[in-house]
Design a protein that fits this description.
The protein is mainly alpha-helical and 45 residues long. 64% of the residues lie in helices and 0% in strands. It has 2 helices and no strands. The longest helix has 25 residues.
């Protein structure tokens, strides 16, 4: 059971990482020259 939970968490995190740059540009108005990189976002939340 714990293996399935880990699998689904891994899949969901990969989905979020692929959608996050699009969200940042469209909803937050970020651009490529923003001072916060996409890899820093999970630490800011």
């Amino acid at each position: 059971m714990l293996g399935f939970v880990s699998l689904f968490m891994d899949i969901s995190s990969e989905m979020v990482h692929s959608i996050l740059p699009v969200f940042m540009v469209s909803a937050l108005g970020a651009n490529e020259t923003s001072s916060v990189s996409v890899s820093d976002v999970p630490y800011l939340l």
